Automatic annotation (TrEMBL), chain A:
Domain NADH:ubiquinone oxidoreductase-like 20kDa subunit, chain residue ranges per copy: 18-128
Entry keyword Metal-binding: yes
Residue ranges of the TM segments: none
Iron-sulfur listed as a keyword: yes
Name of the featured protein: NADH-quinone oxidoreductase subunit NuoB
Region (Disordered): 143-188
Biased composition (Basic and acidic residues): 143-161, 178-188
PANTHER family: FORMATE HYDROGENLYASE SUBUNIT 7-RELATED (PTHR42989:SF1), HYDROGENASE-4 COMPONENT I (PTHR42989)
UniProtKB/TrEMBL annotation, chain B:
Record carries keyword Metal-binding: yes
Example GO molecular function: oxidoreductase activity, acting on NAD(P)H
Sequence positions that bind Mg(2+): 50, 324
Co-factor(s): Ni(2+); Fe cation
Highest rank taxon of the organism: Bacteria
Alphabetically ordered keywords of this record: Iron, Magnesium, Metal-binding, Nickel, Oxidoreductase
Protein name as annotated: NADH-quinone oxidoreductase subunit D
Binding site for Fe cation: 72, 360
Pfam families found in the cross-reference section: Complex1_49kDa, NiFeSe_Hases
Automatic annotation (TrEMBL), chain C:
Basic and acidic residues bias (residue ranges): 121-131
Pfam family, one: Complex1_30kDa
A GO term for molecular function: NADH dehydrogenase (ubiquinone) activity
Region Disordered, annotated ranges: 121-141
SUPFAM superfamilies documented for this protein: Nqo5-like
Name the record gives this protein: NADH-quinone oxidoreductase subunit C
InterPro entries reported in the protein's UniProt record: NADH_quin_OxRdtase_su_C/D-like, NADH_UbQ_OxRdtase_30kDa_su
Annotated ranges, domain NADH:ubiquinone oxidoreductase 30kDa subunit: 18-98
């Protein structure tokens, strides 16, 4: 893997999983398998996380939650689908309530098969995700260096449509504060 | 003097929360910091797998039934095949019964140690969490040696079992269990005597014996309140030939529940030793002809409590109905009852103390 | 050796109108409600209410065989934990259970499919039977009671918010 530059934080969410893959993900954090030696920490806050681990297929209730968690994470971000249910729907693909794998809702970068996925495979998947995360961070740093500003469409082509231009946002704030300063000056 | 009018607020808890491995949503109605009412919202893990009996024939369906839950997986597979065997009047060989009993107890050890770790994590004792899960790995090594899988065993089939535990494996099992038992004594001592554990668990979430009966609770949750009932006493599989008593405590609080579950791990180790000493030689399975017709109810003592399996056949290779009532489904009313009147900070502990298995509940 | 149990396991078919009486008898004998489920077979619902005796581990199941549009009363007055089972039966199978407390109004699991365990031809048959009943004007008292209970629950929720 070479040199590890940044330590990404993990967020784990269970979307209709049987719990097998979740327990194996938790087992990765414990002494015997220990994924923390790669600098990876398990966090509960989506806004602090860089890698999203999703287990289980997507059903009508969890589709919105998964999408919301993905949107709350800051870019660059990587998604890992752990277990065969998260990849394609698995054994439950024919159930009336399962839409399919996680890639029906959000873009997935790493697929880890298995039922339940073994901790060794999960660590393999996380290491790949760490590599992808480093590449994306490096690309982002390079862009900032060249253009002098953050590139918002880096991984997410829909970002521009959802968010405004950061420059406009700062302009608006400056105008408002200038406007209120002028008003106060007039009053005096 | 006028009392300040208390305002009520509704706080959502879940589905994504640090202490919950599974998504469940609770709407907590609070008056200041005290919880007045709890409205649970389940459905995040509902896959509707009971409907798959119409698309998978009764032999293949074992694999679906096992994957209802990754923690109680062996029990679900066992309950399902037992129900189909009862429906078809199939008599399983005695060696297969003993093997199923041994795997059942290994499943119980792994589940209780998993719960003990999550409980320790819930009150912030990370070191104890890691120790419990490190011991659990020893148990999982035994499972992997005998079945090939860590959580999903896939050794049950209608008519018997698919794999054997050879005498060499039995020696390894006995050695490993002795090591596990020795280290577990330290963990048990920490749980029962450590000051920080006692502060968070004594006197919290008390349920009396009458409340437990009215609310229909089962398993270690009920046994911690003095109900001396263990479905293994029915004598299914090889339990009728083993010697054990239900593990009971009378206090009914979180501390008592920790005590009951950890003592059950010691009991499981003892049961495995008894089974290995008594296991006879014989066939692993019998051939099964025909299709299930009729209905059957089976009760099994899962690590979390009494699980009920109902199978209804109609003479074809697809069953008409498979119904699984899991222990967490029966314990949720008890959980909501313990939450009324408690403080907000105790909510995560009260959720973890019923040993919730939401994927079992919602299927 | 540990104590041996030889429990009796029975399934007894009862009439729909005798359900509450039988459940009251179970309650007075100290039985615990173990599970309640529904099944669809040959054009009718088969409801099973199972009770367990904690001392002897006996297991008795009451079986109610009813038509698709029959109204079944809730047993939560005797067993408060029955509400989850009844909500599930109604949401997944479409069994017409009335006066459940608390009533989730088919939002226990919040699934998109409606009564997924009932086959399509059975759904059509159920609608037909309901129309016949409403034309004949039967069971209107239960409707009124249901409406009153719904209103009470809705106003109670508004108060809390």
């Amino acid at each position: 893997m070479g040199k590890v530059k940044r330590s990404p934080w993990l967020l784990h969410y269970d979307a209709s999983s049987c719990n097998g893959c979740d327990i194996e993900v938790l087992a990765c954090m414990t002494p015997v398998y220990d994924v923390e030696r790669f600098g990876v920490v398990n966090t509960a806050d989506p806004m602090q996380a860089d890698i999203l681990l999703v287990t289980g297929g997507v059903n009508s209730q969890s589709a919105e939650v998964v999408k919301q968690l993905y949107d709350q994470m800051a870019r660059p971000k990587v998604v890992v689908a752990v277990g065969i249910c998260a990849c394609t729907g698995g054994v439950f693909k024919d159930c009336y309530n399962i839409n399919g794998g996680v890639d029906t809702v959000i873009p997935v970068d790493v697929y880890v098969p298995g039922c339940a996925a073994r901790p060794e495979s999960i660590i393999d998947g996380v290491v790949k995700a760490v590599q992808i995360f480093q590449e994306r961070s490096d690309a982002h740093d390079k862009y900032v260096k060249e253009h002098g500003e953050s590139e918002r469409n880096l991984n997410d082509p829909d970002a521009a449509a959802r968010e405004g231009n950061p420059a406009d946002f700062f302009d608006a704030i400056t105008k408002t504060s200038e406007g209120s300063r002028n008003k106060e000056a007039e009053k005096k | 003097m006028e009392e300040r009018e208390k305002k009520r607020s509704v706080v959502p808890f879940g589905p994504q929360h640090p202490v919950l491995p599974e998504p469940i949503h609770l709407d907590l109605v609070l008056e200041d910091e005290k919880v007045v009412d709890v409205i649970p919202s389940i459905g995040f893990i509902h896959r509707g797998l009971e409907d798959l009996v119409k698309k998978r024939d009764f032999n293949e369906y074992v694999y679906v039934a096992e994957r209802t839950c990754g923690i109680c997986s062996f029990g679900h597979g066992l309950g399902y095949v037992e129900a189909v065997e009862k429906c078809m009047n199939v008599e399983v060989p005695i060696r297969a019964k003993y093997l199923r009993t041994i795997w059942s107890e290994m499943s119980r050890i792994h589940s209780h140690l998993l719960w003990a770790g999550l409980m320790a994590d819930a009150f912030g004792f990370e070191n104890l969490f890691y120790q419990c899960w490190r011991l659990r790995e020893k148990n999982l090594d035994l499972v992997e040696m005998t079945t090939g899988g860590r959580l999903i065993y896939s050794v049950n089939k209608v008519g018997g079992v698919l794999k054997d535990i050879t005498p060499d494996m039995q020696k390894v099992i006995l050695n490993n269990l002795s090591e596990l038992e020795a280290e577990l004594r330290d963990v048990y001592k920490t749980f029962m005597t450590d000051y920080s554990v006692q502060e968070r668990t004594r006197g919290v979430g008390v349920l009396t014996k009458e409340q437990v009966h009215d609310l229909g609770c089962c398993g270690p949750y009920a046994r911690a309140s003095g109900v001396a009932r263990d479905i293994r006493q029915l004598g299914y599989e090889a339990y009728g030939e083993l010697d054990f008593e239900p593990v009971v405590s009378n206090d009914g609080d979180n501390y008592a529940r920790c005590d009951v579950r950890l003592r059950e791990v010691f009991q499981s180790i003892d049961l495995i030793r008894q089974a290995i000493a008594k296991i006879p030689n014989g066939e692993l399975s019998v051939p099964v002809k025909g299709n299930p017709d009729g209905e059957a109810f089976i009760r099994i003592e899962q690590p979390r409590g009494e699980a009920i399996y109902y199978v209804e056949g109609n003479g074809t290779k697809f069953l008409n109905r498979f119904r699984l009532r899991t222990p967490t489904f029966a314990n949720i009313p008890g959980m909501c009852e313990t939450m009324k009147g408690c403080s907000y900070a105790d909510i995560p502990l009260l959720v973890v103390t019923i040993d919730p298995c939401i994927s079992c509940t919602e299927r | 050796m540990s104590a041996k149990f030889t429990p009796k396991e029975t399934i007894r078919v009862i009439e729909k109108d005798g359900l509450l009486r039988e459940v009251m008898a179970m309650k007075s004998r100290g039985m615990r409600l173990s599970q309640a489920c529904a099944s669809y077979k040959d054009g009718k619902y088969e409801l099973s209410y199972s009770f367990s005796d904690d001392e002897t581990l006996d297991y008795e199941t009451l079986r109610v065989v009813c038509d698709l549009a029959d109204r079944i009363p809730s047993i939560h007055d005797f067993y408060s934990c029955a509400s989850f089972y009844e909500n599930e039966m109604r949401e997944l199978f479409g069994v017409k259970i009335e006066l459940i407390e608390p009533d989730y109004h088919n939002k226990l699991y919040r699934i998109k499919a409606e009564t997924p365990f009932l086959p399509e031809d059975a759904k059509a048959e159920q609608k037909k039977q309901e129309q016949e009943i409403s034309l004949s004007g039967a069971d209107s008292d239960l409707d009124l009671a249901q409406a009153a209970a719904d209103e009470k629950l809705a106003s109670g929720k508004k108060e809390e918010k």
